[in-house]
Amino acid sequence: MGSLSAWHWLVVLIAAVLLFGSSKLPQMARSLGQSARVLKAEVRGMKADEEAAARPAEGEPRS
C-alpha cells in the first residue's frame, strides 16, 4: 500500500472542487480544523481524568 503521491492528492483535490464547489471548500476546511481542535481538547481532558484517577487521593494509604 504506500502513501499517496502528489498525483493522488491532485485527483482528490480536483474531485473535491467538482463535488463541493470552490466557494464551500474554505468553509469546510475551517469546520474540519475546528472539529480537530475540539477532538484534541477532549482527548487531552480524558488523559487528565485518567491520570487524576490513577493518583491516590490525599490521605489515602498507598497499596
UniProtKB/TrEMBL annotation:
Key words of the record: Cell membrane, Membrane, Protein transport, Translocation, Transmembrane, Transmembrane helix, Transport
InterPro entries (alphabetical): TatA/B/E, TatA/E
Function: Part of the twin-arginine translocation (Tat) system that transports large folded proteins containing a characteristic twin-arginine motif in their signal peptide across membranes. TatA could form the protein-conducting channel of the Tat system.
Entry annotated with the keyword Lipid metabolism: no
Subunit organization: The Tat system comprises two distinct complexes: a TatABC complex, containing multiple copies of TatA, TatB and TatC subunits, and a separate TatA complex, containing only TatA subunits. Substrates initially bind to the TatABC complex, which probably triggers association of the separate TatA complex to form the active translocon.
GO molecular function terms listed in the Swiss-Prot or TrEMBL record: protein transmembrane transporter activity
Gene3D superfamilies named in the record: 1.20.5.3310
UniProt cross-references to NCBIfam families, sorted A to Z: PRK00575.1, tatAE
Protein name, as recorded: Sec-independent protein translocase protein TatA
Similarity comment: family membership: Belongs to the TatA/E family.
Transmembrane annotation, as ranges: 6-25
